[in-house]
Write a structure and sequence with these properties.
Blueprint (H helix, E strand, L loop, with lengths): L1 H22 L5 H20 L2 H24 L2 H5 L22 E4 L6 E6 L2 E7 L9 E7 L4 E3 L1
Parallel strand pairs: 3-5
Antiparallel strand pairs: 1-2, 1-4, 2-3, 4-5
Helix pairs in contact: 1-2, 1-3, 2-3
Main location: membrane
Subcellular location: Membrane
Protein name: NfeD-like C-terminal domain-containing protein
C-alpha cells in the first residue's frame, strides 16, 4: 500500500509539473502544486521507507522532474502556441487615399461637426472646421490628416 501511495504522489506531481510546463505559461498554482506533491512524495518516502530507499526515490523523482521540465522546453510544444506573425498595420488604414486639399464635394448628411460627404463616387466621414454644415451643401477639403478629412 505504501508503494501505491508513494508512486501516486510522485506521478501526480510529475503530471502537474508537465501540465504547467507544456500548457500553462508562467509559474502558476499548477506548477507549485506539482512541486509540492512531489516533495510530499519524497517526505512520505523518508517517513515510510529506509534511508537508502528514500534517497533512491528522491533521486529518481528529481531526475524525472528535471527531465519533464527539460522535455517541456525542448520538445517544440511552445511552437504550436507561439505567435508567428506580427501586426504590421497602424493607425492609417488608407481611407483618405485619393483625396487632396482643395477637392470639392457635397455634404450627404448634416455635418455637425462630423458627418458624411461625397467626393466623386465615394462616401467619406468628414469633420467641419467651422461647426454646422447642412446636408446638400457644397464643401471643400481644407486638410487631410492621417484618417481625418477636415472640410469647410
Amino acid at each position: 500500500m505504501e508503494i501505491l501511495i508513494l508512486s501516486s504522489l510522485l506521478i501526480i506531481g510529475l503530471i502537474l509539473l508537465l501540465v504547467e510546463v507544456l500548457f500553462i505559461p508562467g509559474t502558476t498554482i499548477v506548477g507549485i502544486l506539482g512541486f509540492a506533491v512531489s516533495i510530499a512524495g519524497v517526505i512520505y518516502a523518508f517517513s515510510e521507507f529506509g534511508y537508502e530507499t528514500a534517497i533512491w526515490v528522491t533521486s529518481i523523482a528529481a531526475i524525472a522532474n528535471l527531465a519533464a521540465v527539460w522535455y517541456g522546453f525542448s520538445s517544440g510544444v511552445w511552437n504550436k502556441f507561439s505567435l508567428k506573425t506580427s501586426i504590421t498595420g497602424g493607425a492609417f488604414d488608407g481611407r483618405t487615399e485619393g483625396l487632396e486639399v482643395g477637392m470639392k464635394g457635397k455634404a450627404v448628411s448634416d455635418i455637425k461637426p462630423i458627418g458624411k460627404a461625397l467626393f466623386g463616387e465615394q462616401l467619406f466621414e468628414v469633420k467641419s472646421e467651422s461647426g454646422f454644415l447642412e446636408a446638400g451643401k457644397d464643401i471643400e477639403i481644407v486638410k487631410v490628416e492621417t484618417n481625418k478629412i477636415i472640410v469647410k
